[in-house]
């Protein structure tokens, strides 16, 4: 069995991580901050955005893979994967908006969408465990 949804989501997450990595590197060069965040607020923001994606992507991808291996409904899982990925993009965009103009809307939507997608996948796995494996 191939894990097509997980593979696509992992590839997109990898590209977002690389994008954010280069944003961090660019800010490090700009501020000459080689370790940590220093006193630069933008450095703190880009590092936090990169770290937040790095914290959330692994568990979401593991849950996606487990659901695909359990032959979960393809389109429902695709929808949850899309929600996760769109939420991650909104979070990144929202962090820049929040840092620049103080607008929290996109960041909040990104956090909420990420949480909903991960919780839904976790409960789906629990449901499958209880109904299929007992």
Mean pLDDT value: 90
Work out the radius of gyration.
Answer: 17 Å
Major sheet: none
Number of helices: 4
- DSSP strand tally: 0
- For this structure, the CATH topology is Four Helix Bundle (Hemerythrin (Met), subunit A)
**In percent terms, what proportion of residues is strand?**
under 5%
Tell me the CATH superfamily: Membrane associated eicosanoid/glutathione metabolism-like domain
Give helix and strand order, one letter per element, not per position.
HHHH
CATH class: Mainly Alpha
Oligomer: single chain
Total domains, how many? 1
Helix content: over 70%
Separation, N- and C-terminal Cα atoms? 24 Å
| Shape type | elongated
Strand-pairing-aware structural class: mainly alpha
Low-confidence segments, ≥5 residues, pLDDT <50?
none
The CATH architecture term is Up-down Bundle
Molecular structure report:
The longest helix is centred in the middle third of the chain and has 29 residues, at 41-69. Helix 1 runs antiparallel to helix 2 (41-69). This protein has one domain (4-31, 40-132): Membrane associated eicosanoid/glutathione metabolism-like domain (Four Helix Bundle (Hemerythrin (Met), subunit A)), CATH 1.20.120.550. With 134 residues, it is mainly alpha-helical. The chain is built from four helices and no strands.
């Amino acid at each position: 069995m191939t894990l097509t949804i997980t593979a696509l989501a992992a590839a997109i997450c990898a590209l977002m991580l690389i994008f954010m990595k280069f944003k961090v590197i660019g800010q490090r060069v700009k501020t000459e901050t080689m370790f940590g965040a220093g006193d630069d607020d933008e450095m703190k923001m880009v590092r936090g955005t990169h770290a937040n994606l790095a914290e959330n992507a692994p568990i979401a991808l593991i849950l996606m893979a487990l659901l695909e291996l359990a032959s979960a409904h393809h389109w429902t899982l695709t929808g949850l994967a899309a929600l996760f990925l769109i939420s991650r993009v909104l979070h990144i965009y929202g962090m820049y908006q929040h840092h620049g103009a103080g607008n929290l809307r996109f960041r909040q939507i990104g956090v909420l969408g990420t949480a909903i997608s991960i919780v839904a996948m976790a409960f789906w796995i629990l449901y499958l465990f209880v109904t299929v494996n007992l």
